[in-house]
Structure formats: C-alpha cells, structure tokens
C-alpha cells in the first residue's frame, strides 16, 4: 500500500524551480533513497513532506490524506537532519526521550521505551552518558533512536551518515538497513553518496535540477543508468558518442559490441570498467584497441587502470590484482557487450 504520494510537487525560489513537478510514491515498509548532487533539491523535497516548506504547486498525501492543511507536528513524520542536532545539555536518555516527553508521556512510561531504543541502535545502557562523550557514529545512533522514539509512520533522513568517515558509514548503512527491515519502518532518505544510497535502499531515485532523472532498484540503476548524467553521477566515465547498427556501435574507440535489442542509430554508449578486457599486444596483435596504461590505482579488491587509447578519449578499466599491467605498459582493449549500455544521445 502507498504510504506517501507526491503529486507534481513544485517549489520555486525566485523564478527558479528547485523542485520541479516531482511525482513519487513510497510504499509502506519501503526504504527509498533520493540521490543527487548538491543543490538538486533533495532537502527541499523532505522539508515539503515534513510540512516545513509550503510547495508552490502539487500535493502531498500521507495514507491517502492531503496534507495541505496539516501542520508539521501533526503529520506523523520523523525528520533526522544531517548534523543530527542532539541537545548537548541533555544526556543520551534525555535526547531519546525528547519526542516522547513533549507528547506528555510520563517517565515510568518512556524509560523502558528509551532503554529498548538504545538497545535497538546498539547502545544498550547508554542513558546517562553525556552527548559530548560520544563518537560521531554513536551520536548518529542516538539521533536515530530519538527520531524512531515517537514511532513516526514515515521516517525521513537527510544525509543520515554524511558526517562519518567512509568505513563507519558503510557499516552503519548495512546496520540501518537491517534495523529498518526488522522494524518495518517506511523510510525516505536523501544523500549525495551513491554507496550509501545503494546500501540502504530498496529503491533509488536520482534527482537532477529538481527533477527525477531515474528511479529503480539499486541493481537496475547501477546496471542500466538511464542517461549520461546518471552514469557519470554513479562514477562511470567511459561514455562516448556512438552510432548503433545491429549489435555494433561505431565509436571514437572503434567498434564496440552492444547487447542484442539495443536501440539503433545515433546514441551514446557507456562501457563499464569491468567490460574493458585487456590483452597483450605481443600475443594478440590486431585484436582490440591499442592503449598505453597512463595510471594504475589500487582499490583493495582490484586495480583501476586509466588507459590512453590510440584513438578516442581515456578509458577506465578494471582488472584483478594479479598480473595487472604497470603504468607505461602497452595493452590492447576489447569490450564485453554485457557491460555496455546504450544511452540516449546528449
Ligand atoms: N530558502 C531558500 N531560499 C532560496 N534558495 C534556496 C532556499 N533553500 C534552498 N535553496 C536553493 O535551492 C536549491 C536546492 O537546495 P536543496 O537544499 O534542496 O538541495 P540539496 O539537493 O538538498 O543539496 P545539498 O545536498 O547540498 O543539501 C539550492 O540551489 C539552494 O541554494
């Protein structure tokens, strides 16, 4: 069942639409992540849903009911901001209890609930700790417990892990996903970090200049970015103009095989780095595009190579650690059609 429905939501600042006729549904128990570069309108969208910003056009429905006349505090949505904004003069328990106390709950009623929430976020027994004594990751967990305390029907997270270092961010994203699925929480999160969005979400919505550029499961968006913008935003830079005929695209890198059924004619192609297959020019002469390895970057589980091809723009390739060529080596590149995506012309 649909919990949140946005219908043509528009917000203008001056004559600029920072949110431009956005339609979006979030189903009950679904975790949706809105992903987009800074300034694409993500936070403004959350503020509209929370009732902190009146839209210039369109409608917000929660559980089917139009929210136009419903003030923020009666919408039943929880909002957690990026800088988590804990109250520094309250202890952890006081922070988590905040939303329960302003609703008039008595200590005897909320204390067990606070204990339960702290357990849930992995900080059992932390009630009396001072906020200043917590690490960034622990503060994030307290902020989350505080947002969950009043049991919002929709939990909205603005850059929930933005302040944390990468390792912690990835770990917490996985933990959050498990927690939300256990609680059945409906979540709408916004982030500019694709790894965070992909780790957290059932569905990813990519925004560009106030509009939805693509929506789909993390796998769909990753495998089939809908445009050059989405592809580059996900970090794929092997994008060139192409003319597709049958299962071959003519490109500045020469012929590139494309999956059967690809759209024909003038387009662009994306070759994911894993689809650039390297050969040794000494043994495979004549097969593939001659390239020189311009740079080699160690990525932990694999190596990323920047190739300078004989023709066409630089090409990024991925290969195993073992036997990876070194900077300055000559290689040939062929392309695996399964890793090639035909994109619309720019
Ligand atoms: N109150 C305001 N008055 C004028 N312009 C605003 C206001 N609030 C936001 N904007 C502008 O609207 C655009 C979208 O802002 P928004 O904060 O929604 O983007 P965002 O995608 O959340 O970005 P970030 O990731 O940096 O938070 C930005 O260009 C911003 O400068």
UniProtKB/TrEMBL annotation:
<dbReference type="InterPro" id="IPR008995">
    <property type="entry name" value="Mo/tungstate-bd_C_term_dom"/>
</dbReference>
<dbReference type="InterPro" id="IPR050093">
    <property type="entry name" value="ABC_SmlMolc_Importer"/>
</dbReference>
<keyword id="KW-0547">Nucleotide-binding</keyword>
<dbReference type="InterPro" id="IPR017871">
    <property type="entry name" value="ABC_transporter-like_CS"/>
</dbReference>
<feature type="domain" description="ABC transporter">
    <location>
        <begin position="4"/>
        <end position="234"/>
    </location>
</feature>
<dbReference type="InterPro" id="IPR003593">
    <property type="entry name" value="AAA+_ATPase"/>
</dbReference>
<keyword id="KW-0813">Transport</keyword>
<dbReference type="InterPro" id="IPR027417">
    <property type="entry name" value="P-loop_NTPase"/>
</dbReference>
<dbReference type="InterPro" id="IPR013611">
    <property type="entry name" value="Transp-assoc_OB_typ2"/>
</dbReference>
<dbReference type="GO" id="GO:0005524">
    <property type="term" value="F:ATP binding"/>
</dbReference>
<protein>
    <submittedName>
        <fullName>ABC transporter ATP-binding protein</fullName>
    </submittedName>
</protein>
<keyword id="KW-0067">ATP-binding</keyword>
<dbReference type="Pfam" id="PF08402">
    <property type="entry name" value="TOBE_2"/>
</dbReference>
<dbReference type="InterPro" id="IPR003439">
    <property type="entry name" value="ABC_transporter-like_ATP-bd"/>
</dbReference>
<dbReference type="Pfam" id="PF00005">
    <property type="entry name" value="ABC_tran"/>
</dbReference>
């Amino acid at each position: 069942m649909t919990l949140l429905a946005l219908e043509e939501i528009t917000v203008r600042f001056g004559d600029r639409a920072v949110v431009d006729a956005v339609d979006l549904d979030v189903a009950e128990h679904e975790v949706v992540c809105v992903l987009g570069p800074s300034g694409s309108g993500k936070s403004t969208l959350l503020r509209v849903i929370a009732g902190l910003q009146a839209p210039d056009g369109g409608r917000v429905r929660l559980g089917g009911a139009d929210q136009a006349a419903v003030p923020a505090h009666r919408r039943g949505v929880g909002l957690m901001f990026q800088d988590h904004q804990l109250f520094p003069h309250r202890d952890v328990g006081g922070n988590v209890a905040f939303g329960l106390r302003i609703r008039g709950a008595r200590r005897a009623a909320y204390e067990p609930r606070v204990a339960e929430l702290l357990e849930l976020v992995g900080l059992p027994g932390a009630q009396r700790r001072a906020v200043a004594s917590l690490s960034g990751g622990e503060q994030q967990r307290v902020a989350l417990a505080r947002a969950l305390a009043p049991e919002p029907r929709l939990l909205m997270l603005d850059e929930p892990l933005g302040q944390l270092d990468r390792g912690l961010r990835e770990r917490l994203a996985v933990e959050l996903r498990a927690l939300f699925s256990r609680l059945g929480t409906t979540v709408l999160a916004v982030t500019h970090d694709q790894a965070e969005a992909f780790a957290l979400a059932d569905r990813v919505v990519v925004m560009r200049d106030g509009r939805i550029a693509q929506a789909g499961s993390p796998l769909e968006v990753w495998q089939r970015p809908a445009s050059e913008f989405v592809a580059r935003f996900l970090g794929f830079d092997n994008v060139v103009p192409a003319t597709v005929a049958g299962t071959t695209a003519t490109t500045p890198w020469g012929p590139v095989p494309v999956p059967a059924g690809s759209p024909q004619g003038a387009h662009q192609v994306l070759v994911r780095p894993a689809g650039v297959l390297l050969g040794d020019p000494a043994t495979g002469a004549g097969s593939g595009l001659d390239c020189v390895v311009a740079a080699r970057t160690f990525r932990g589980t694999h190596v990323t190579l920047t190739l300078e091809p004989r023709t066409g723009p630089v090409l990024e390739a991925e290969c195993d650690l073992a036997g990876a060529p070194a900077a300055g080596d000559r290689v040939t590149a062929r392309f695996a059609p399964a890793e090639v995506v035909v994109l619309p012309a720019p």
